[in-house]
Amino acid sequence: MRRRWARGRPPWWPENEPWPPRQAVHARRAGRRRFFRLFALAFVAALATGVVGTVTLVWTAAARLGLVAPNTTPASGLFVLGGALVGAAMTAAVLLGTLRRIGRPLDAVMDAAGRVADGDYAVRVAEQGPLPFRALARAFNTMAGRLASQDRVRRDLMADLSHELRTPVSILQGKLEGLLDGVYPRDDHQLTALLEETGVLSRLIDDLRTLALSESGALQLQKEPTDIADLARDVVDGFEASAAAARVRVTVDAQPNVPAADVDPVRVREVIANLVSNALRHTPAGGTIAVRVAAASAGAIQIVVEDTGTGMTSDDLAHAFDRFHKGAGSRGSGLGLTIARSLVGAHGGEIHAASEVGKGTTVTVRLPLSASEAARS
Hints:
The chain is an alpha+beta fold and 377 residues long. 60% of the residues lie in helices and 12% in strands. The radius of gyration is 36 Å and the shape is elongated.
């Protein structure tokens, strides 16, 4: 199989070291071959010594017990010894064949492991040999596939992150240079614009931190029985000014006597805020956004955010919760739905979206009730 980086040095490889590291690869292979040869020779020598020693001891004991005439030892002993040596040679041949069957797949796994250590995550091992070695090769291929996937995700994340940070930083740099050069007046209007861009950077950093904590399982939730309906009303009140500026009507419809949910109110507020903010960005003037809260079956609370916006295509819907994925014309960072999914998952809940182009999008969240409310229901 061709090496992944055979046509060029990988960006993380040290500049003062040659690529590809053929000497290291050849040294590893030569070392494995020497190991297997020495192991086979030592095994055959030990086997032959054991067989000859056993025959000699048995023959000597038989002669002392009178089972074999002492004067027949030279001729008969040589005959028996020769037969023992022939048997040992045949046994050694069989064992060498077995060692070869075992050594080949093991050598392939060791060679592939060395290539993975060199950054070649595309290498795969043929599943051959005894059943345990096939299982080993299968596990190795799974590991290599996951490493390749994680490496690809890491590279994509770095590219997306640099792209998202470039825009506000470029605006800040341009505005500051304009202020210093006298192109822009040094008034409150320009300072407010700069402050808004720092707010964009701050929100992006906070989103990345929240996403990293939730996906790594290190996010600490401060759960308490919470009225989700009141939480939704507070979130919508916070969007009143921006909704009025966009001429979009945002409403809250809460079912009467909705039981409390055992959640972290700060994180659930962030989930609802992300959903409403995302809906507001994709809903044109004159549209509506409805937030509905109701008790669901199986001891859960259901939150539905429905808009009459532009909707999503089937491809955008399939990647709606992927980090940094943005539809055509989107002005967000592409992290809102990703964070919402991570926070809902951290609560043991679930989230899914449905959309139709030109008619709008509906996002449904289900969160568990508190223990006392679940027992009561």
